[in-house]
Amino acid sequence: MNWRSLAGAGLATLAGVALLVGLGVWQLKRLAWKEGLIAAVAARAHSAPTPVPPPTQWASLKPADYEYRRVAVKGVYDYADQEFIFGGLDDPHGPYGGVGYFVMTPLLLAYGETIIVDRGFVPDTLKAAADKGPRGEVEVVGLMRSSERRNLFTPADDPAHHEFFSRNVENLARAMKLGPHAPFVIDAEAGPDPLPEGGETRLVFVNNHLSYAFTWFGLAAALTAVFVIYARGRMAGAPPQV
To answer: Can you name the residues that pair with 50 across neighbouring β-strands?
Structure first.
């Protein structure tokens, strides 16, 4: 047997190795992107608050430019038109966690527009605490968050019972019957009142790209080793060439 008889297997192996190495390199690029994202989020979330963008800029805002930006804004809460997003809170920053709701409250601005504020978490058994809060003008400090997309596993919202399952700004605004409103939500920081429990924005991001890259590179090395063993076995068992 000569090396030509291994050409088919060799080409298939080469193609497989190229694909696996390509996937590994792609994961390394994703790693660099994720680390940049984490650094940018940390810088935005822990910086001094800046004024919220004025309504004249809302239409041109892009989520990538403002997500997790720490801002401050003044307004008056409208507790009559609150909505609730059902969810669970693991590893809470405050004393309350488990199953409950994130309280979404319209904040009426002086110039007529509205921003929906996530005032924080209330346990299922303490939902009535969501009706309590400061009266009159308040200053809200928190993080700007973009509208949340639904997926195939997101349950249907139930506006009739004020129960939602995703932070979708337009769906919430429609249920609240809002007029001009911001295309984002503000996650409020923890305030003096224990409930709703603010400051529960998750700033931890899954980052497994390095381990994925090692997996792809490892598979490429294993495939190469398998081919080498196979080729040596075939050559060793081949009859002498005359």
So the answer is: 71
Dihedral sign of CA atoms 170, 174, 178, 180 in order: positive
Type of residue numbered 221: A
Global pTM value: 0.79
User: How far apart (Å, rounded) are the C-alpha atoms in residues 5 and 35?
Assistant: 47
Rg, the chain, Cα only: 27
CA–CA distance, 183 with 147 (Å, rounded to integer): 7
- Over residues 16-64, the pLDDT tens digits come to 999 999 999 999 999 998 898 888 888 888 899 999 999 999 999 999 8
Contact 109, 186 (CB under 8 A): no
The residue type at 188: A
SS (H, E, C) the chain: CCHHHHHHHHHHHHHHHHHHHHHHHHHHHHHHHHHHHHHHHHHHHCCCCEECCCHHHHCCCCHHHHCCCEEEEEEEECHHHCEEEEEEECCCCCCCCEEEEEEEEEEECCCCCEEEEEEEEEEHHHHHHHHCCCCCEEEEEEEEEECCCCCCCCCCCEHHHCEECCCCHHHHHHHHCCCCEEEEEEEECCCCCCCCECCCCCCCCCCCHHHHHHHHHHHHHHHHHHHHHHHHHHHHCCCCCC
C-alpha span between 73 and 112 (Å, rounded): 13
What phi and psi, each to the nearest 5 degrees, are found at residue 87? Answer: -175, 180
Of 205, 219, 206, 222, the C-alpha closest to 24 is: 219
What does the alpha-carbon distance between residue 190 and residue 93 come to, in Å, rounded to a whole number? 9
Residue with tokens 């969810």: 87
